[in-house]
Every structure is written in C-alpha cells, then in structure tokens.
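@channel sequence for tomorrow's demo:
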Amino acid sequence: MPPAQVWGCWNGYALTAGLRTRFIQASQMLHELARQDGEIALNRCLKKYCNYDLLIIDELGNLDYGKRYADLLFAVVGGRYLKRSTIVTTNTIFQEWNTFFPNAMCVTTLVDKLMHKSELVVIKGKSYREREATERAAARNKRRKEQKTKPAIDEKQKNEEPSKSSVGRITKSTSQKNSKGG
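structure tokens (generated this afternoon):
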C-alpha cells in the first residue's frame, strides 16, 4: 500500500474514532510557523499543532531547512511529547537528518523524542509513484505504436474495399438502370 494510503488509513481511523487529526506537509507547517510575527502569534500557531490528537507530518527531509525550522519542529514535537500521537514520514534515515537541518543542535534530541515510545515502520521497495509512471509510459508507448500502424492498415482497407458511400451510389445507379428496363 502506498505511504499516502497508509497514512490516509491512520487518518481515517483516527477521524472515525472521534480524534482531532491533521495531515500536513512538513514544509507547509514549518513555513507557517516561521511566518508568525511575534511570540504571541507563534505560540498560538504552535498550540494549534500541539493540540491535535494525531498530527501526521508528511515528507520531512525533502527540502533543506535552516536552524530556525529545526527549532520550530523541535517545539512542535516537544509540545506533543508523551501527550499526543505524531506520525512523521521521511525518506531519510535519522542519522542523516543533519543534512536537511544543518547547524541545528537539537536534531539528536528531536530524533530521541520522536523515537521514544514509538514504533518505526520502514517501507522498502520501489516507489508506487515510480511504478505508476512506468506503467503509464508503457501504455502510452503501446498506444503510439498502435497509432503508427493504424494509418497503414486504413490505407490498405481503402484500396481493397469500396467505401459505404460509393457502394450506395453503385447500388443506386444499378437500380435506376434496372428500373428503366435495362
């Protein structure tokens, strides 16, 4: 099952169980937090993310972030730590998180809080997006080959068989000759 569907299942289960749930791209959440003017606005936004029963942060590590973004993620994870459930999706192993959070002192503690009392789910294999793209490309190539051979077949049919409109004319002219006594 593709990761988005897996998280969608968790999200759907949480919603049917009556839990307040939020699924958000990591970059969207961090940019929103970073845009806050002043401490009061930032605290209000942090509180919003800390109060969901389940927060699913998607695609962490697909972009590089500065130290401030690491601190903001740390604030969200710290605010939820041992109180609320958090799911984080990433293609990067924890040991490499310092590559997208360079110069951030809190990365080790951030990973530690995420891993404490958690379950790590590792999904191995080809990307479902890659598989679907390969299947679409194969289908598109097949259609193109069929379209290239189709005009040649149509030309043969035109030369071999008279069209329906010409058949109709031939029949009509023959029937007119027969009706005149020909």
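heads up for whoever presents: Helices lie at 3-16, 26-34, 38-50, 67-80, 107-115, 128-160, 164-179.
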